[in-house]
Amino acid sequence: MMKYIICILLGCLGKDITAQSNLDALLHRYTDNSVPYISIEELVMCKDEAVVLDSRSKKEYAVSHIATSIFVDYENFTLDTFKKIYPNQNTLIVVYCSVGVRSHTTGKKLINAGYKNVKNLYGGIFEWKNMNLPIINRNAIETDSLHTYSEQWSKYSKNAINVF
């Protein structure tokens, strides 16, 4: 009986390690680590001090987003507008997308523009929801629906109603 319980526990741990390594491999493939990561736990601790930017599409943001986030639209992000609203280049800025690829690009633009405290949310909104943290829809109502960009990317979303 004890062997059976240990096997189940190891199986569960193996799944978490595999999921983590799959995400690590994905981010390594599509990013160059020039934007440092911030963990979900770190963001939760300093969320009130951070400017949190959602760099997904308008359609994704409408389905759900982190409550305090500001929509910046990955495809149409403009530094000029951002600099006018957030001129302090020492402000903690946390950028997220689905898993961390598009937010990496937005983060690089901010760093290249002189912002000194830019972080990429490791695992993005998928990891946020995977940790059972709340997300809200366009009406500011908590939801379990999460736009996963595509069916392929939805494999990284575990605790949501996946929409694509």
TrEMBL record:
Keyword Chaperone: no
Record GO terms (molecular function): thiosulfate-cyanide sulfurtransferase activity
Keyword flag Nucleotide-binding: no
Domain of life: Bacteria
Keyword line: Transferase
Residues of the Rhodanese domain: 46-137
NCBIfam families referenced in this protein's UniProt entry, alphabetically: rhoda_near_glyco
Protein's name in the database: Rhodanese-related sulfurtransferase
Protein species of origin: Aquimarina intermedia
Taxonomic placement: Bacteria, Pseudomonadati, Bacteroidota, Flavobacteriia, Flavobacteriales
